[in-house]
């Protein structure tokens, strides 16, 4: 036997492919296809940033749009700088068209706000994230997660208006925007501009009410209840129920003004404090005049009216008005300068365009036109400037102008004028010789009492004569005369009506003179005691016996 036949085996390589490998290859292909299909049909991933991830649970918190699930939160972690929370969420396939620069995400959870209680459905299901699709800009992958829904969608039809104000805290997001009491929009945003040092507000007025906003409208703060006590009196204004507790903003075209052209989107306007301040801001043309008062100006404030017989002509500008390089002597005739503005637009439409205000005032000054302070409100003591003609007005001898300001002469008026007249009367009363009159009246009373005593003695003598026996020896005419005299004297004796009345008058006169003495002593110490209450004197102290 040969060794080749029994010792070594001949090995031949199989060249064909084994069907055993079909199953693992198919498995790999199917797995690869599943993986590819998963990632190929996976929706976009978005990054949401927020200050607090309260209520957000990865793998459970869903993303919805119009109550339809469109995604799920995958993770939530702190940012690298530890300043905010980064939330990664995966949206479903086909939602790419909802993501734009103006898309908005916010958390839906139970809240109590101006519109009432919202998000009660999340008490059982948990919080979720709502997506409001955008329409403008390219697709973005990072958004800010808001705590509350936006007041108006980016694609909502309407107009946005910018307001500026010098006072902070007047409006908040969500406050209503009213037109004649009807709500037409809302306040979207409020922020403080540190560079301009003023507040900025953004309003959204929805269609079709956006056409109410024109170039001539004015916006003002509409508070619930406003109380104003000024020279015009006491004003109490109450807004609509929508602004009773939180306030709001109203707008309208001032009376007598044209509507103007429609406003552009994000046009800028000024926010006034109230509706009355709008009226004062309409009159931009004015002529300044200077007044000098030699009486107290306490109660006169900037903004007080300037009137002529009840017709408003202008406004008080500055009280007091400090004129540069003007010296004013501090003596008995010290005068306080006040600047007023005469505003022709208040009455030029009614009087015609050819009405020359300066010429009319110049003519009026020649005929006694003077300015005075009048009390506008007795409760607050507010004053206003009144222009009127004064009878027998003294000729004004001062300058017609100081610098560029024309001067209108002034006179004392109101309570000051009345006080001067009362003081003049009291000075005359004080100069009357009342003490000598009282002395003479007291002496006359004593003399009257002596006369009555002498009269009684005379009456007694007459009675003795008429009852004596010698009376019968007298002639008949003489007896008749004595009897008539006796009868007349009896009418004046004590107990008779004439006597009693005379004694009563004398006693009443004595009482009046006694009561008048303290009044005269008070007037001697304080001449104006009849107008202003005098300080009561100290009670008399008894003196000890020596």
From TrEMBL:
Residues 43-134, 158-218, 291-389 form the Mce/MlaD domain. Keywords: Cell inner membrane, Cell membrane, Membrane, Transmembrane, Transmembrane helix. The chain crosses the membrane at residues 20-39. The keyword Transmembrane helix applies. Its main location: membrane. It comes from the Bacteria. The keyword Secreted does not apply. Pfam families: MlaD (PF02470). It is found in: Cell inner membrane. NCBIfam families: PRK10807.1. This is Intermembrane transport protein PqiB. The gene is pqiB.
């Amino acid at each position: 036997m040969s060794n080749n036949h029994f010792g070594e085996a001949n090995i031949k390589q199989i060249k064909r492919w084994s069907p055993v490998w079909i199953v693992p290859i198919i498995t790999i292909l199917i797995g690869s296809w599943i993986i590819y299909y998963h990632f190929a049909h996976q929706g976009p991933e978005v990054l949401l940033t927020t200050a607090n991830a309260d209520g957000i649970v990865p793998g459970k918190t869903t993303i919805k749009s119009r109550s339809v699930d469109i995604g799920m939160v995958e993770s939530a972690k702190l940012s690298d700088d530890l300043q905010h929370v980064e939330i990664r969420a995966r949206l479903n396939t086909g939602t790419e068209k909802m993501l734009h620069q103006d898309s908005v995400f916010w958390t839906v959870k139970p809240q109590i706000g101006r519109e009432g209680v919202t998000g009660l459905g999340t008490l059982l299901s948990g919080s979720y994230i709502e997506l409001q699709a955008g329409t403008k800009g390219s697709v973005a992958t990072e958004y800010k997660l808001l705590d509350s829904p936006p007041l108006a969608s980016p694609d909502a039809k309407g107009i946005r208006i910018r307001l500026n104000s010098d006072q902070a805290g007047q409006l908040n997001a969500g406050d209503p925007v009213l037109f004649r009491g009807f709500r037409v929009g809302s306040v979207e945003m409020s922020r403080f501009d540190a560079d301009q040092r003023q507040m900025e507000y953004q309003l959204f007025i929805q269609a079709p009410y956006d056409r109410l906003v024109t170039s001539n409208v004015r916006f003002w703060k509409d508070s619930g209840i406003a109380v104003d006590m000024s020279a015009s009196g006491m004003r109490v204004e109450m807004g609509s129920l929508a602004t009773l507790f939180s306030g709001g903003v109203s707008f309208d075209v001032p009376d007598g003004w044209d509507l103007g052209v429609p406003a552009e989107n994000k046009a800028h306007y000024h926010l006034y404090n109230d509706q009355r301040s709008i009226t004062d801001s309409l009159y931009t043309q004015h002529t300044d005049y200077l007044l000098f008062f030699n009486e107290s100006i306490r109660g006169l404030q900037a903004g007080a009216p300037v009137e002529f017989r009840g017709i408003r002509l202008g406004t008080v500008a500055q009280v007091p008005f400090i004129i540069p390089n003007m010296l004013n002597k501090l003596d008995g005739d010290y005068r306080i300068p006040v600047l007023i503005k005469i505003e022709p637009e208040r009455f030029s439409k009614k009087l015609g365009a050819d009405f020359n205000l300066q010429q009319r005032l110049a003519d009026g000054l020649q005929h006694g036109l003077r300015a005075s302070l009048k009390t506008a409100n007795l409760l607050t003591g507010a004053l206003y400037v009144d222009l009127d003609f004064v009878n027998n007005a003294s000729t004004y001898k001062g300058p017609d102008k100081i610098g560029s300001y024309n001067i209108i002469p002034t006179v004392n008026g109101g309570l000051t004028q009345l006080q001067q007249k009362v003081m003049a009367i009291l000075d005359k009363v004080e100069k009357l010789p009342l003490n000598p009159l009282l002395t003479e009246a007291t002496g006359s009373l004593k003399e009257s009492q002596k006369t009555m005593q002498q009269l009684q003695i005379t009456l007694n003598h007459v009675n003795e004569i008429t009852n004596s026996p010698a009376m019968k020896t007298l002639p008949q005419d003489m007896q008749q005369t004595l009897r008539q005299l006796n009868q007349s004297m009896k009418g004046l004796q004590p107990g008779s009506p004439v006597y009693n009345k005379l004694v009563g008058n004398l006693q009443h006169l004595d009482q009046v003179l006694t009561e008048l003495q303290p009044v005269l002593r008070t007037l001697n110490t304080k001449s104006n005691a009849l107008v202003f209450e005098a300080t009561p004197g100290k009670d008399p102290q008894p003196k000890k016996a020596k």
